[in-house]
Every structure is written in C-alpha cells, then in structure tokens.
Predict the 3D structure of the following.
Amino acid sequence: MAIGILLIVVAALWRVAGAFVPGGAFSNFAPLMALALCGGLFLPRIWAWLVPLAALLASDFILDHHYGVPFLTWLACGAYACYVLAILGGFALRRNPRLPRVFGAALLATLLFYAVTNSVAWAVDPGYAKSAAGWFQALTTGLPGYPPTWTFFRNSAASDLLFTALYLGAMALAGNRLSASESLPTDHAERVAVRP
C-alpha cells in the first residue's frame, strides 16, 4: 500500500512540476501513461486502477486550477479513456510480457493518446477549422501562440518509453530480491533432493 501511495504522489508531482518548467520543454513528459500500462501489467487489479487514475486526477485538479480551466472537459474524458485502455493493455500483457510487446504497447498507448486528445481538441476548439486541414493542423502545428502539437507527441513518446523501461527495471530488481529471499538454503535443498 505504501508503494502505491508513493507512486501516486511522485507521478502527480512530476506531472505538475513539468508544467512550471519555462518554455514547455517538459510538457507531456510524465510517467503517467507508463504507470497505467505497467500498473496493469504488475500491480494487483485494484491498485492497477487506483494508482494511475488517482495520480491523473490529482495532477489534473492542480493543473486545471493553475491554468484556470474546468476540471472535467471533453478533452479530459478522451485522455482518461486512453489511460483506461493502457491499464487494460497491461492486463492483456500479463499472459505474455515480453519486452518487445511491452514497449510496443507503450508506443501504441502514446500514439492513441496523441490521436485521441488532438482529435477531441480539433472537434471542440473553435480555433480549428472543422475540415481535414483543421484536423491535420491539430495533429501537427496546433494553434498559433502555442508549441506545435508534434512536440507534445515527442515528449510523450520519450517519457512513456523511458518510464516503462524504469518500471520494468524496478520490477526486475524487486523480483530478483524476492526470489533470492525465498530460495531454500543449499544444504536443505540437497537434503530434500536426496530424500528417498
């Protein structure tokens, strides 16, 4: 339970801190999507839902207040749907969690998040023309006066792959410690092996 709460706090703080870095260099560079995917892969089911979604809601509450936007919008609903799909993707990977599949799922989650959130922004933001050209603008350059949306994709892809690797490494280290602590002493194992 303590590790779950720590993950919620760290992920939420990391995401909020990135919004205060000048120039938007760390916009969308956050551990939340990787936490959703790896939570679904490794955490007990209730924690797999609770940890990433609590971190997302907590950080959204702070960021929305900071930016002066409503807490629950169509854009937020699209983003939450992507996180839910990432958790479900982690559950699906439990049966066969090979590295290429996990990193492929992380990249797929990034692409899905990018496509969904920018498509929702195109649909609801009056700044975009409701045409194929407007949708293309939403997926590439975004609105004038803001960083291009492709930079958010770049940051999301880098963070999702990096934090997925870090979570996998942490779980591998934890697994090695756990299996080492549960192994039988050598002399006891030998006695068991030679017992008639």
In short: Residues 6 and 129 are 43 Å apart (CA to CA).
